[in-house]
Predict the 3D structure of the following.
Amino acid sequence: MDFYKEYQEKLRTPDEAVRVVKDGDWVDYSTNLGFPVALDEALARRRDELHNVKVRGNLAFGPVQIAECDPSREHFIYNSWHFSAYERSLHDRGLCNFIPMLFRQVVEYYKHFLTVNVAMMSVTPMDRHGYFNLSCATGVAKGILDKADIVILEVNEHLPRILGGFEEIIHISEVDYVVEVPHGPLYQLPAGKPSEEDEKIADLLLPYIPSGATLQLGIGNMPNVIGARLAETDLQDLGMHTELCGDAYYTLYRAGKLTNRRKKLHKNKGVTGMVFGSKELYDWVDNNPGIMAAPLSYVNDPNIIGQIDNMISINNCIAVDLYGQICAESVGLRHISGTGGQLDFLTGAAISRGGKSFICLTSSFIDKDGERKSRILPHFEGDIITDPRSQAYFVVTEYGVVNLVGRTTWERAEMLISIAHPDFRDQLIRAAEEQKIWIRSNKR
């Protein structure tokens, strides 16, 4: 078949392609580098002729023009499954709403409950067989595209082609329109400078990670610190099974630590659902047969994760209360991030043979007024609970590591106070007494 001819027949300018969007439609933008920059700009240019168009996306690095151009939200209403820093700023300005979810279930939400009138996303150029690769957005992209009434693909010549197990491609026959425009370099996630507390937390974690372990590392400074620390150890044959592949894994690969050789599931392959980070990371995953992209309905399935021996899950959070409830999404009612796959991997690592799940946080922080505040709280007041106390496992601050599994409320209070910042321990003890989760003899 002449796939190139079919491609040419479906080729449109961005402005032509977005003419299919109507008042009241639900439009999907996919995730991270799958964000359709040119189509978003073209849709924003239709602002004055459209009303009540609802758009879903997540981890958009910005700008989202349909949100920026319409502060009244009469024309476009942008919504996110998981906030990036940019989307958090949109939310603070009243221009973005959050959609609660577990990442492994997102595609099932679309399949059974959600409407997608138009899906538009960025993909790699078409190959000679008529396939576009879904690249860094593979984790959720195909399920969204399958549900859409109309599919518009924006070809981004810079996206890496990430090989996969399944659902990492879409064929030209499944597409309604294709858009070609020149793009600038891919967004690179800047590496933050780790704090002294981050370094201490990383050092505390190292003894818990054996050779042959498979790693899931969350996003932020902590994964990068862990990667750098592990690269300097004598550990061998580490594996990757992760929702998000970031630069920590590339660091381990360069050091010869990441081989995936001891994995029983997908041996010799690092498994991921999404990728974003540096240009070097994008070059590494491009056409790399040692990297496998798959949908998050598979990658994040606790039953799949649990089949991996020595699965080590390491994630960050914002705060923990004395009951062991974990918040990784909000500060009070101000939304910060999202559930993502944290609870998925916490659950899966807990049932892995030799597996462990770690939730990391600095014991305190300095607020905008220069006042030190504790991240270990007596109890939450409106904060979003990401991980219930019934699933709390290892909690780590720069002052130590505690395992809350099977512990009573008074044991949890004692253990968490032991890794709180010293300035707050006495007041936390008083709070625990008032909450009747403290036994006086416990104080050492």
Remarks:
- The longest strand covers residues 239-245.
- The first helix runs from residue 3 to 10.
